[in-house]
Amino acid sequence: MFHRRSKLITPANQTIMRYPKIQAALHALSDTRGLPWPKDHEKKADADLLEWLQAMFGFQKDNVSNQREHLVLLLANMHIRQISKPEQQPELDDHVLDTTMNKLFKNYKRWCKYLGRKTSLWLPTIPQEVQQRKLLYMGLYLLIWGEAANLRFMPVCLCYLFHHMAFELYGVLAANVSPVTGENVRPYYGGEEEAFLKKVVTPISKIVETDKAERSGTIKSKHSHRRNYDDLNAFFWSNDCFQLGWPMRADADFFQEEEQPV
């Protein structure tokens, strides 16, 4: 479960909120123009890109607050380092955004290259939509990381999750139509509160916790194939991981244990 912590940037009267570079990042995140909100979602007047991602993918509320802070500070700090000229009301600089994005997705791009896969970082052809799309990808990655719990010990597992969820994000924004339902594409695990935690993180975490318990002797098992974090991480470094599918197949080898030979 994701735990609540103090929110640095939430109260509008805090000094940090008045910093121009913080304002620039917050203003950029507030651009929700053109985003298709779920029909049953009650959109707030001050809704931003992180709230839209929460509504679409089912992230936890506290995680959204914390990763909003995280992303704003990442952008503001990079802005301070890259742009030395003081400005009263600066806009989010494209170079700052690209530098932050490249740093954040360095490991993901390396993973895609190693496995011979194209990234899911598809950008729109309309220039006015590019900044919004980049922020959505960054926000999505941080929200996945924020609820990943012990899956953070398997960083390429997070790459796998992001790869598929970013592709879903692209499908939603491109208004792609599902060949199965005939309706616009929606994230498979979205649509309800805490869906990402319950339907994605928890099933994978159970595999990790079961293997840890077996190795420690906490529980006894008749299975011989005991996997540790290194084993599971190695799985996501191979193209075999794509057999897991998306949505993830409950009958995939990843979720199974081999019977001990007699």
From TrEMBL:
<dbReference type="InterPro" id="IPR026899">
    <property type="entry name" value="FKS1-like_dom1"/>
</dbReference>
<dbReference type="Pfam" id="PF14288">
    <property type="entry name" value="FKS1_dom1"/>
</dbReference>
<feature type="domain" description="1,3-beta-glucan synthase component FKS1-like">
    <location>
        <begin position="132"/>
        <end position="249"/>
    </location>
</feature>
<protein>
    <recommendedName>
        <fullName>1,3-beta-glucan synthase component FKS1-like domain-containing protein</fullName>
    </recommendedName>
</protein>
